[in-house]
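Contributing: when you submit paired examples, paste them exactly as shown. First protein:
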Amino acid sequence: MRFVRLCLLYAVALAAACLFAPAKAAPPPGTDWVMTFSDNFDAPALDPAIWSVSSSADGRRPNGDPAEVVVSDNALHLICRHHMHGKDEWTSAGLWTRDFRQAFGYFEARLRYAKATGLTNLFRLITDQPISSGGFEIAVDEGRYPRLVSIQLHRPGARGLYVYRAKAGTDLSNDYHLYGLSWLPNSRGTTTLTWYVDGTPIQSAACPDCTRPVRLWLGTRVITGSGPFAPPSSGVSMDVDYVRVYQVRTTAMHHQQ
């Protein structure tokens, strides 16, 4: 807990200094990357060959409604609104990659937060195996309106939860921003995770357990403790401009052989 508090204090100061500067859509320099996955959401509808819409927007509660996953205006819109859905008084939206899986690389989404308190905007990497069976989850971002960026790593063991939070100097629901993760093996025999916002690295962590392929997960989640969820009757949405994944070229060529 002390480590998380120190990270929070550091992040607030860092955000005012250098986060959320203009950034181009590209993985970190210095590595020979090749793109392995891309969806610009510029088709008339969501591509069912690429994505599966979930009945659970956050992977836990069955409040996901497929009708709240909309592709229009060259973007993916994951909508939340007050509407009875089962036992819940609100609906939300979530989806994951149907077939695509990858271990290591650079993972990036350009998205805009939903303009509502009480809601988490999710971009996750999740193994097919549960954490109890050696799997893990990496939150590239679990952000909250208007300015909170929250990165997380869930893995097996008593010390398996890693959390780091930063506050932006701008309202993240006003425009699109880049949220990325570099995940590569290191010289110590483990892997290094480095999180980016708008091309700026904000935190790194080692993960000896992070070696299995992951799928991509996008979604929204209504949560307690972060203000009331009171969207307009038309709802609010987390909007995704694109999702892209890269792999180190030598690794990608090895996987294709």
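Second protein:
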Amino acid sequence: MHFTKLVPSLFYADIQIALKTFIHCLEFTIGHNELHTSNPFCVVGKDDLSIMLFENAEYAENDHPEIRLVTNNINEVYEKVASKFPGLLHPNLKEVTLRPWGAKEFAIIDGQIGIRVQEWPNQVKTIQEYMLPYFGPIDPANLNWYYHTQIAFPDHDYVIGLDLNFKNKQIEAGMANDIANFLSNLEEFDKRNHLAIEKDFADQVGETFGYIQFLLEELEEMELNEKQLLQKLRLVRVGLYPDDKYDGGYFAAFDYSVDIDGQPCNQVLVIKTGKEGMPIETDWES
């Protein structure tokens, strides 16, 4: 015998609760639709999954099943559910947890059914080894939290710190490709950032203007003007955060400073970018 799909039937006293769980929260879509009949029901689907949802108070009273959804990216699923529908998280499994049987799990409950979301180790699609520019080989299935090296752009006589920071111990091939592409374009991103810094300074309302005014006071004896200080700003560090380690919403941070007595000033102007290298925001940090 050969089967291609299992399609469960779930019963709710109020089918709108089912639609909130599956359509709005879990991002299924409605296929067959008889919601506006005397016996409302519909078929919802996502990828290769299908579920039949019925409004039937009699059946719902005696039927409170638990189903399991298996994913290869439980953190992404959890972040979407927790940010938009925190009230659906099951109080006994409201965070992604590594279970004794080897699966990562969290659960939701809507008053009628329970749903356990799982990720098994063999569900994560990884590659054995990946060569990254500047860093060399990394194992996407067993990452370090932190990688560091130093680089120099052609025709520049200074060294730039470069670090790679991860929140998770595993990434998929797509993210590894994003990292490699980003690293391959650092010099171009640096040029783009300098243009963004000049524009931010010209507006006189962003962090760049205040930062340059601070440097003018600190380096008064050097008798530099604003334009000269802007020209002396150089890249001192690039930090990559591909899986948003600190939940900052950016892919990379470029730190700019000026050299004082041969060393970069500890006050830095930070350009934060997305994975395409486009500046998102500018900060002044120490």
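If you have annotations for the second protein, write them as plain sentences, like these:
Helices lie at 15-25, 57-62, 74-84, 173-183, 186-203, 207-218, 226-232.
The CA atoms of residues 195 and 201 lie 10 Å apart.
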